[in-house]
Each structure stands twice: as structure tokens, then as C-alpha cells.
């Protein structure tokens, strides 16, 4: 069973000015002369962390991580202005040019899979391979499954906690109700909504829920920022022109080698999302991990992802 590569520190960091408002944090680690790869983090609003460098052999990869607009070390923190899917796609392309990279492997999970697909469909000539995990295609049915009704059937106890901040007369549209609270101006209301939103996301993200992780997600000082960005994208349907737009655009990337890794028991982004993508893109390899949920760090998922990056490095 493959595991993550050892911890590694970046050898170069910076901020790229991408608009009059936003500066995007980026970092490089691994081999400066290696195969370029960009890690696209989840969320929206999640930010990067050191473990994300470890899916790649540092002797063979030039590893690029970046924090999307408003996230992590990018500034201004939590900003929703000029913050859409297509701004983020443009930022990725600007970063590629800034780093003088001709083409790169694009690696993303959850919301990162969404943004990776959007980037690849707009810039297919700049992508050598795609490695995608926990597929999310930004469709209304997927948003409803997680945040309105669906996953709730597996965690009715946690669902009650998720519903608690929202009055009965607003529960017909929970994403909108959370949006109104998280983008509002009452810090107490924001904090309460962020705790519930963050705890629910953490609860459904692992095959076996980690109570310590769930508690940490609920109380994380950045929970309000993450929640604001997350609901901003969700309430705007991820800024796609049509429901299913990513599936409609798959023909643009079918020539690109791809690997799709999906946990069989992913309650956040159910396996039928990955199956729909694979049906539209049969040339991509689909690996369904039989004993995994949504988290990238579950053993079977780590194994499949590292196997894929090693294979593409060769």
C-alpha cells in the first residue's frame, strides 16, 4: 500500500497580483527541473496545506500549490468580490505563465476536481494529464444532495445540528439561508452559521467520522471565511452557464490522459458523479476505492493517487 511522500518544505514562494483587488499566494517545492504539477485545493474556500505537497515524488516533480482568491495566504482574506470560477481559472493560467511553465499536470479533489475540469476545458493545450478525486461537477442535484436533502439520511443526528441555526420558514433553501447569515454583518450570527456549516462538511467527509477533526472544523478561526466563500459559490451555482456544463464540455479534454479516483462511500460527492464523468470521458481511468469516503487522506485513496502521480512521472 502506497503512502504519502515524506514532508517537504517549499523552496520558493510568492504572491501574484491577479487583479486590482486580489493577490494569490503560490509556492514551489520538489525538483525545480522536474515535471510540473499544480495542486488545486478544495472548498471552495479551503486553502492549501503541507500534506498536499506529499502526493508527488519530490525528486521527479516540480510541485506548485496556490491559494485561490480569498483563501489561505491569498489576500484580501475572505473577499467575495471578483471571486468566481472563471476568475480562478484565469488565475491558474496567469500563474502558469508567471512561473514560465509550458504545460502541467493538473491535480484536484472535490471542488478542486471541479476547478481542474473547468481549467482543462478552457485550456486543454496546457494540460499534460488530469488526476481527479472525489468528483464534484457543480450540478444542482449535487448541491441539493449535500446541503438540502440526501446525505442527511445517513446522519440524521448531525443534520439536526446543521438545521438548528435556520428557522423553519427558511429551510426550503438551506444554501440561501446560510448565505444570508455568512455574508451578513452580525459577527455572532456569522460565527454560529460557520460552526454548523463547517461541522456538517467535516462530518460527511470521511468514511469513519473523526470527532476531533469535526470539532476543530467547527471552531477553526478561518471557518467564517471558508463558509462565506463556500456558500458564495454554491448560491451562484458555481458560476456555470448551464447545469451540467462541465459534462457538456468533456469532449475538449478526452485526448488528455486522466485518472479519476473515487471513494465508494463518499457521501459528500457520491460515486455517481464520478461514474457520470467516466461515461462522458471513457478514455480516463476510473478507480473506485472500495473502503473510502470523501477524504483524500484515507489509505486506499492515498494509494491510488500516489500510484497515479508516480505513473505519470514515468
Describe the structure.
The chain is an alpha/beta fold and about 325 residues long. The protein has 2 domains: about 10-140 and about 240-314, Rossmann fold (3-Layer(aba) Sandwich), CATH 3.40.50.1820; about 140-240, no CATH class. About 40% of the residues lie in helices and about 15% in strands. The chain is built from 11 helices and 8 strands. It has an 8-stranded mixed β-sheet, with helices on both faces. α10 (about 270-280) links the parallel β7 (about 260-265) and β8. The protein is globular, with a radius of gyration of 18 Å. The model has no long low-confidence stretch (mean pLDDT about 95).
Quick take:
The protein has helices at residues 85-98, 111-122, 140-147, 156-163, 174-182, 187-203, 211-219, 223-235, 245-248, 271-280, 299-313, and strands spanning 12-17, 23-30, 35-40, 61-66, 104-109, 127-133, 258-263, 285-289.
Report the β-strand fraction as a percent range: 15-25%
| Class by SSE composition | alpha/beta
* CATH class category label of the largest domain: Alpha Beta
Strand order of the largest sheet: 1-2-4-3-5-6-7-8
Shape field: globular
Based on CA atoms alone, the radius of gyration comes out at 18 Å
State the separation between the terminal residues, measured CA to CA: 19 Å
Largest sheet: 8 strands, mixed
Calculate the mean pLDDT score and round it.
96
Question: How many helix segments?
Answer: 11
Could you tell me the number of beta strands?
Answer: 8
Number of domains: 2
Q: What is the CATH H-level superfamily of the largest domain? A: Alpha/Beta hydrolase fold, catalytic domain
Q: Would you identify the regions where 5 or more consecutive residues have pLDDT less than 50?
A: none
Helix and strand run: EEEEHEHEHHHHHHHEHEH
Helix content: 25-40%
- As for the CATH topology of the largest domain, it is Rossmann fold
State the CATH architecture of the largest domain.
Answer: 3-Layer(aba) Sandwich
Amino acid at each position: 500500500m502506497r503512502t504519502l511522500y515524506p514532508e517537504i518544505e517549499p523552496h520558493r514562494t510568492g504572491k501574484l497580483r491577479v487583479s486590482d483587488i486580489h493577490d494569490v499566494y503560490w509556492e514551489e517545492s520538489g525538483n525545480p527541473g522536474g515535471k510540473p504539477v499544480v495542486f488545486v485545493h478544495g472548498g471552495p474556500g479551503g486553502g492549501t496545506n503541507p500534506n498536499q505537497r506529499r502526493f508527488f515524488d519530490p525528486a521527479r516533480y516540480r510541485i506548485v500549490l496556490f491559494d485561490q482568491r480569498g483563501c489561505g495566504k491569498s489576500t484580501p482574506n475572505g473577499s467575495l468580490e471578483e471571486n468566481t470560477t472563471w476568475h480562478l481559472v484565469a488565475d491558474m493560467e496567469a500563474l502558469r505563465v508567471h512561473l514560465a511553465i509550458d504545460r502541467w499536470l493538473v491535480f484536484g479533489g472535490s471542488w478542486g476536481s471541479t476547478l481542474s475540469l473547468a481549467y482543462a476545458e478552457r485550456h486543454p493545450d496546457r494540460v499534460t494529464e488530469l488526476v481527479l478525486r472525489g468528483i464534484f461537477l457543480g450540478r444542482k442535484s449535487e448541491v441539493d444532495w449535500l446541503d438540502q436533502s440526501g446525505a442527511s439520511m445517513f446522519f440524521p443526528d448531525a443534520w439536526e445540528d446543521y438545521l438548528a441555526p435556520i428557522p423553519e420558514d427558511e429551510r426550503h433553501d438551506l444554501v440561501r439561508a446560510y448565505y444570508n447569515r455568512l455574508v451578513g454583518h452580525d459577527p455572532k450570527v456569522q460565527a454560529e452559521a460557520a460552526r454548523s456549516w463547517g461541522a456538517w462538511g467535516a462530518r460527511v467527509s470521511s468514511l469513519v467520522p473523526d470527532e476531533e477533526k469535526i470539532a476543530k472544523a467547527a471552531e477553526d478561526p478561518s471557518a467564517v471565511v471558508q463558509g462565506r466563500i463556500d456558500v458564495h459559490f454554491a448560491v451562484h451555482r458555481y458560476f456555470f452557464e448551464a447545469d451540467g456544463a462541465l459534462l457538456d464540455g468533456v469532449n475538449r479534454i478526452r485526448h488528455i490522459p486522466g485518472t479519476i479516483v473515487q471513494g465508494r462511500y463518499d457521501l459528500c460527492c457520491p460515486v455517481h458523479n464520478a461514474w457520470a464523468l467516466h461515461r462522458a470521458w471513457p478514455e480516463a481511468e476510473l478507480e473506485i476505492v472500495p473502503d473510502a469516503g470523501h477524504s483524500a487522506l484515507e489509505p486506499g485513496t492515498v494509494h491510488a493517487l500516489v500510484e497515479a502521480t508516480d505513473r505519470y512521472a514515468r
